[in-house]
Amino acid sequence: MSARAELIVKYAADLKDKCGVTPDMDLLTKVTIGCGPSIYNKDASTVAGSQKSELDTVKNNFLIKKLGLSDGPELDAGIEAVIEKYGRSNANKHRAVVYYLLAVHFKKESVYN
Description:
This protein has 5 helices and 2 strands; from the N terminus they run H-H-E-H-H-E-H. With 113 residues, it is mainly α. A two-stranded antiparallel ribbon has the order 1-2. Helix 1 packs across helix 2, helix 2 crosses helix 5 (95-105) and helix 4 crosses helix 5.
């Protein structure tokens, strides 16, 4: 199994075990591929849910640039909802899982089709 395939299995387990979500494996694979090489970098592969600068990066680079959403308070609310769902106390929030949950939350799965 490739390193990426192993990570996708880990992300799927996080979605199921920590978020109570049965993942769409096709979408999860596409979101993971969309994260590029960052998934292999220990620091870049996770999202610090309590750091405002990190959450601003998620909002600007993923929600606005990738998903094409307009900036507004609903983006911050969506990020908060996803961080809450993943578990605020969970220190290792994988970027691919956060992005997957955000794409589903904002009903933007079509971006990956």
